[in-house]
């Protein structure tokens, strides 16, 4: 993973995190699919314009959110009382259910596209440094959080290693492939937990042996908080306010 | 700049006599690691929840109550291992941050609030036992309170009050909390202790303090 480029990558990570939080809170009060769709389109355009993420990679990053959103639409379409969408169908599908479902799915997508923008434009180191500098996080806590952030990136790799190890010893099914049932899945999850705890302990030892938390620290590559960040906040707030105002008027 | 940086250093040398020493780095990192792994697993559980909701058809809205206990796990686990105040609440909140910020859970940042309430409920019974008692019953009550407290928050958010299903929802959620969020946590903790991975943490240290000779594990 190379260093991210683009305007958003040079912005202050604490500011970006706060904006992500703020926008997510705003979406929770919205249930109008059109307003949410407008926010999603704006968010996607902004992420494309300010990061080095191409259209293809952005689409790929959206797949999990689309899958989850589809689930939300289905659940709500079938489980909410209201006016029937089409009386001829064998299952009850209501207009209210579909509307709420689509709105919830769009909420997912809005938060998803903004989270993607945040993650691809922020390195763990800059986020950590910025949280210590601007959010007054203690250095010990910051390093622990950094360890967690790193671990999250490594989890899929650990998971694959564990599954491979289990596959080697698993009994073969009729076609000669290893049979990995749900019990093996549970055992793999437990192994993942154990491996992570071990990794965490090693990280803690390494940090302690470097004298973390024993005295005042200097900051390597301090993160700036400048006028451009103020413009960033202003732009996001203005865009969201505009969409909301148009949504309320329409 | 340099003057501002001196405050954390002086604080960490332990000038406050009344308070306990700050959490050792080992415990701090373990708390974050547990939060991260469970944030990942919770996220997987959300996928399972979606599948179950679809499979249950019109009753899909009730699926969350059956699974809710699963989202409580990390708090009793962290408290039982580290045995210090607020560890359960923090671990649960870290898990929710991982879910929302890094994995983009659609529940959104209000999940931080729900997670803090869950953590509070789960940690309360252990706090009342002054972080010294970790029996089966205490884990069960932990799951019960974790599921119970957050139920009222969810009911407020999604308008469950006044529905016919209110008591059914509550009963299922409490049962799920006791089984998945309480007793399962105890099973997990005991299994983790047996692997030897927790040998350097309070949970095993406290046990050793009660026994005369150090236990030698055959691996």
UniProtKB/TrEMBL annotation, chain A:
One of its GO terms (cellular component) is plasma membrane. GO terms for molecular function: ATP binding. This is Energy-coupling factor transport system permease protein/energy-coupling factor transport system ATP-binding protein. It comes from the Bacteria. Pfam families: CbiQ. The keyword Transmembrane applies. CDD domains: EcfT (cd16914).
From TrEMBL, chain B:
Pfam families: ABC_cobalt. Keywords: Membrane, Transmembrane, Transmembrane helix. InterPro entries: ABC_thiamin-permease_prd. It comes from the Bacteria. The chain crosses the membrane at residues 28-50, 62-79, 86-104, 110-128, 140-160, 166-185. The keyword Transmembrane applies. This is Energy-coupling factor transport system substrate-specific component. It comes from Microlunatus flavus. The lineage of its organism: Bacteria, Bacillati, Actinomycetota, Actinomycetes, Propionibacteriales.
